[in-house]
Amino acid sequence: MRLTDGEIADAKRVDLRTFCERDGVTLRRESANEFSGNCPKCGGHDRLHVIHERGGDWRWFCRQCHEKWSDTPGYLVWRLGLSFPQAVIAVLDGAPAMPASAPRPVCDDKPARPFDPAYWTIARGRPLTAAALAYLEGRGIDTATAARWRLFSELAISVPDTEPKRHAEAIGMPWVDQTGQVIAVRYRFLARQGDYRITSRGSFTGHAHGWHAISGWAHGGGALIVCEGEINAMSIDQAAQAHSLRVDVLSLGSESQKMPAEVADAAKSYRRTVVWADRGGNAAAWAAAIDGATPIRSPKGLDANDLLQRGLLAAFLGRIIE
User: Fold this and answer.
1) What is the pLDDT of residues 257-297, one digit of tens each?
2) H or E element: which one contains 10?
3) C-beta separation of 239 from 311 below 8 A
4) Which 8-state DSSP code applies to residue 206?
5) Rounded to whole angstroms, what are the CA distances from 229 to 89, 207, 208, 240, 255?
6) In 3-state terms, what secondary structure has residue 114?
7) How many angstroms separate the CA atoms of 175 and 183, rounded?
8) 72-80 and 84-93 helices cross at what angle (nearest 10)?
9) Of the residues 104, 118, 234, 255, which has the fewest C-beta atoms closer than 10 A?
10) Are 201 and 293 in contact (CB under 8 A)?
């Protein structure tokens, strides 16, 4: 079966969510073009990640059973055992028989809630509550770090996709761009809300978290660490500050985020750049976008915050930035 380049390109642009829906996957919106949901193969409730790239292609991976990024035809190869040419034809035909018997609908395609700068004027004045401080203490984050990263309490943030509407207390983590403007906020619930640990306001695509906490080691022989997760970034910053390590840190937030051009450009000024992810495949893919970057994966599955809580983070940082 011989396919044209045009047929392959067209198949990669077919909306993957259509096939996920038939396969019993419920996708939740994480950002304007990013979704997560249950994996139809291994059963993890938030392991399947789907993104719609700016060029129009759809991509996906499962954190447990398919760590390598794939495309819409690749999904049918994975689920139906088709050859790649067969999958392309099936995607273009639009009606393969999926194995799921009770499909659940994906979330609606409403746009991401825009970020209103006026909201930050109000939110930044909200001090962390006793419950929020206790949560951070349990994660090993001290009050100086919380202030440095501009954390605040949100007492009534909506839990996504709940009817009737439910609210819960969360910690707000503002994302600040290179000009100093707050462009989005990620919220971490103090207690897990069903399938949700986090929710958000605004769009994170193409940006990194942590520009406001950069210490200025780019031209001082320092190192840049690029990591997953806001709390991991705070943990690295706290350990570096406490032990006088010449380290700056930026977070990509979600593991499905692509390496932003602004980070790759900033990395050129550092003596060394380390890209740290829980999974080696993610670290390697991100590091490939930065000349000379070194990919590392979390040792024994311990991320930066895990190491901070165990008192091991500073020594680990010292080794990886040498």
Assistant:
1) 889 999 999 999 999 999 999 887 889 989 999 999 999 99
2) helix 5-12
3) no
4) T
5) 38, 13, 10, 17, 8
6) coil
7) 6
8) 110
9) 118
10) no
Closest of 31, 32, 64 to residue 46, by C-alpha: 64
- Confidence (pTM): 0.67
- CA pair distance 139, 31, nearest whole angstrom: 25
**How do residues 38-78 score in pLDDT, each as one tens digit?**
888 877 666 788 998 878 899 998 877 787 889 999 999 99
Structure tokens at 222: 């320092």
Q: How far is CA 231 from CA 14, 88, 146, 257, in A?
A: 35, 40, 10, 16
Place of tokens 């210490």: 215
What are the structure tokens assigned to 159, written together? 């839990």
Between CA 75 and CA 260 the distance in angstroms is: 26
Stretch (H or E) spanning 273: strand 272-277
CA distances from 298 to 100, 265, 282, 313 (A): 34, 25, 11, 11
Q: Which two tokens stand for residue 193?
A: 């809300």
Query: Is-contact 92 11, C-beta < 8 A?
Result: yes
Angle between helices 5-12 and 72-80 (to 10 degrees): 80
Helices and strands (H, E) in the chain, number of each type: 12, 13
CA distance 225 to 49: 24
Sequence length of the chain is 322
